[in-house]
Amino acid sequence: MAALKIKQIKVGPLGVFAYIVACSETKKGIIIDPGGEANQLVELIRSERFEITYILNTHGHADHVMANQKLKNLLPNKQHVAVGMHSEDKRLFIDQQMPKRSANQSKRLESPVVDRLLHHGDVLNVGRMRINVIHTPGHTPGSVCFHTEKNLFTGDTLFVGAVGRTDIPGGSLDTLLASLQNRIMPLPPDTIIWPGHDYGDRPATTLGREMRENPYITDFILS
Ligand SMILES: [Zn+2]
Ligand SMILES: [Zn+2]
User: Fold this and answer.
1) What distance in angstroms lies between residue 70's CA and the mean position of ligand 1's atoms?
2) In sequence order, which residues have a C-beta less than 8 Å from that of residue 182 and are 6 or more positions away?
3) 3-state SS class at 73
4) How remote is the CA of residue 16 from the centroid of ligand 2, in Å?
5) Which of 15, 108, 157, 194 is deepest in the core (most CB within 10 A)?
6) Distance between CA atoms of 163 and 141, rounded to whole angstroms?
7) Ligand 2 centroid from CA 68, angstroms
8) Cα–Cα separations (whole angstroms), residue 119 to 24, 72, 76, 114
9) Domains of the chain (ranges plus CATH)?
10) Residues 6+ positions from 62 with CB-CB distance below 8 Å
11) Distances (CA, A) of 162 to 24, 185, 209
């Protein structure tokens, strides 16, 4: 079992949790959801001497992908860094790049670079880490969780005490609850849940605690 270093950093105007996850032995690592603060993330990577091989997105919403391009350009080994996102959210990501008609919405994100389309069951090997891609649609069609060594990075699928919004285009509460029930709840209860936003009473939780206390699980799934 690989020993990991996990850093949780709040970035961007919407306070997204970005994560740096690295293998302690090889220092090879990934960045999950760089939604901003690319310079700060790079500084941290430099000071820890991490070698990043993937920038991974839990889904294609702008607040989670905003700094993909800038961050990649700032990394010293950028030609060996792949940006990964689920195939069903690549569309969403591209749509966000389209020019908006109204003048006050004319700000465009930098062009997307998705080098690696992710699918359910994919395994990414990074140093001694094995990162499993779990497709958990509901918040968006292409939402995924990343699972490695009892850690689950859930993006906007599962928060501390809540779940992500499903009232936005592409969202479905029924689909999200099915993802929770079939793909997250079977994991061991001591799995650490690292969410995509700081919406709860603590920055991270365990699956066991959420099974006992998260109303979306206790009231909608287990009742
Ligand atoms: Zn989202
Ligand atoms: Zn979000």
Assistant:
1) 20
2) none
3) helix
4) 6
5) 157
6) 15
7) 15
8) 27, 22, 28, 13
9) 4-218 (3.60.15.10)
10) 96, 109
11) 31, 14, 12
Ligand 1 center from residue 62 Cα (angstroms): 8
Residue 66 structure tokens: 């905003």
* pLDDT by position in tens, the chain (length 223): 789 999 999 999 889 999 999 999 999 999 999 999 999 999 999 999 999 999 999 999 999 999 999 999 999 999 999 999 999 998 777 666 555 544 444 455 555 679 999 999 999 999 999 999 999 999 999 999 999 999 999 999 999 999 999 999 899 999 999 999 999 999 999 999 999 999 999 999 999 999 999 999 999 999 8
CA of 42 to the centre of ligand 1 (A): 23
Q: Which helix (H) or strand (E) is 83 found in, with range?
A: strand 82-86
The Cα 219–Cα 123 span in angstroms is 33
Ligand 1 centre to CA of 104 (Å) is 22
Q: Scanning the structure block, which residue is given the tokens 């909608």?
A: 220
* 63 C-alpha to ligand 1 centroid (Å): 7
Reported pTM: 0.94
168 close to 63: Cβ distance less than 8 angstroms: no
